[in-house]
Amino acid sequence: MRFWDASAIVPLLITEASTRSLQALAARDPDMLVWWGSEVECASALARLERDATLQPQAAALSFNRLKQLAAGWHEVEPSDIIRETATRLLRVHPLRAADVLQLAAAFIAAEQRPSSLEMITLDDRLASAAQKEGFAVIDIATD
After folding, report:
1. 77 contacts 38 by C-beta, under 8 angstroms
2. With contact defined as beta carbons under 8 Å apart, do 7 and 122 qualify?
3. Residue 71's pLDDT is what?
4. Segments in the chain forming alpha helices (H)
5. Burial class (CB in 10 A: 0-12, 13-18, 19+), 63
6. CA–CA dist 139, 137 (Å, integer)
């Protein structure tokens, strides 16, 4: 099982340059581990694209349905005091925003504070850098 950041989930919902690579990765290992707030982050990205008219209403509806289907099958790291405390510590070490640091803290706790035991999938460069510095193996995603 791998930890999936919301930035890596969105291309499974809409077509982006990394979609094929991420679909292949998900097909090889369909057990997805995510932060509790990932569904909301993905919905936010889809809604923003729809508001900006980058994503047409019909495509948005399909994407939201895909998100529900994915969310029904993934494993979530639930909110907890230890995640909040870890996120607060990580904010002082890495230049991350709140949602990104909560992703990293959730992965850290899911890995039982042994980051080398869990691979992370993210397309966010700042999060990837912080995750690598914390000891996670970050999977490099090829774009087509």
Report:
1. no
2. yes
3. 98
4. 6-9, 19-28, 38-51, 57-73, 81-91, 98-110, 125-134
5. buried
6. 6
Short-list 95, 97, 112, 121, CA closest to 34:
121
Angstrom CA distances, 51 to 17, 39, 46, 55, 91, stand at 21, 18, 9, 8, 31
pLDDT higher than 70, residue 15: yes
> Which phi and psi (to 5°) does residue 38 adopt?
-60, -40
In this prediction the pTM is: 0.94
- Using CA atoms of 71, 75, 80, 84 in order, give the dihedral in degrees to the nearest 10: -80
Quickly count: other Cβ atoms within 10 Å of residue 60's Cβ.
18
Distance between CA atoms of residues 97 and 106, nearest Å: 14
Mean of per-residue pLDDT scores for the chain: 96
Question: Would strands 32-35 and 75-77 be described as parallel, antiparallel, or unpaired?
Answer: parallel
CB atoms near residue 53 (< 10 Å)? 8
Spatial CA neighbour of 34 closest among 7, 16, 14: 7
